[in-house]
Amino acid sequence: MGIIDVQNLNKTYANKLVLNNLSLSLGSGQIVGLLGPNGCGKSTLIKILAGVISDYDGNVFIDGQTPGIYTKSIVSYLPEKTYLSKWMRPVDAVAYFSDFYADFDKVKAMDMIQQFRLDPMQPTKNMSKGMQEKLQLSLVMSRRSKVLILDEPLGGVDPATRSAILDMILRNYLEESILIMATHLVQDVERIFNYAILLGYGELILAGETDDIRREYGKSLDEIFREVFACSISL
Ligand SMILES: Nc1ncnc2c1ncn2[C@@H]1O[C@H](COP(=O)(O)OP(=O)(O)OP(=O)(O)O)[C@@H](O)[C@H]1O
């Protein structure tokens, strides 16, 4: 059994089937790219793993347990939207995480905040979107969690900063844990993934070691992504 096991997972919103009989098994010690177009179900899957959504059919196990109090204690989750209060400054957010999570490394968080050149005393309401993303990433990456799940952590940052953030993620990732990152910025990010999951409208299209996938298809993940999800929008 992997650290994450998903068996025959189905999720509907109203009558709409969003995850269709999804099965996955993921082991620790890898950085996993969760890739797929807008609306294909990445955030829904992540929310189920993070224990935010519980009305689904099928089996989900994280470290052998169904999502709940235990799994929340070992899963560090970066949601797509900010959950920090507007008045919070980085120092407040660090104190909050420190109170809330036993596995939170305050020194590491302050170090990441400094490396991102954020002002520890600036309220989040005065930060740009990219600055808020850096702050949240510093907090989430500073938990010594077995499972790290990042939902679109790079959406608001420019390409040069993306690269710096990826390096920061690689430096701070604990090798015994698993990191899952949802993104559609495949070209920018694929260098850090050892494993990729390609999701297409609720169905698993492809899952495997990135080196094996590239070798088998003779293409980069980005090229595969563009081919599989090519759409006919004309401007
Ligand atoms: N709370 C909700 N109520 C109804 N439908 C929802 C809800 N949340 C998501 N959906 C629908 O479920 C589908 C999958 O959404 P989801 O957010 O999981 O996709 P995604 O792959 O994360 O997309 P994106 O890359 O744009 O963030 C979409 O069709 C979306 O409209």
UniProtKB/TrEMBL annotation:
Any one GO MF annotation of this record: ATP binding
PROSITE patterns, sorted: ABC_TRANSPORTER_2
Ranges where the ABC transporter domain occurs: 4-226
Keyword annotations: ATP-binding, Nucleotide-binding, Transport
InterPro entries the UniProt entry points to: AAA+_ATPase, ABC_transporter-like_ATP-bd, ABC_Transporter_VariousFunc, P-loop_NTPase
Protein name: ABC transporter ATP-binding protein
Organism: Bianquea renquensis
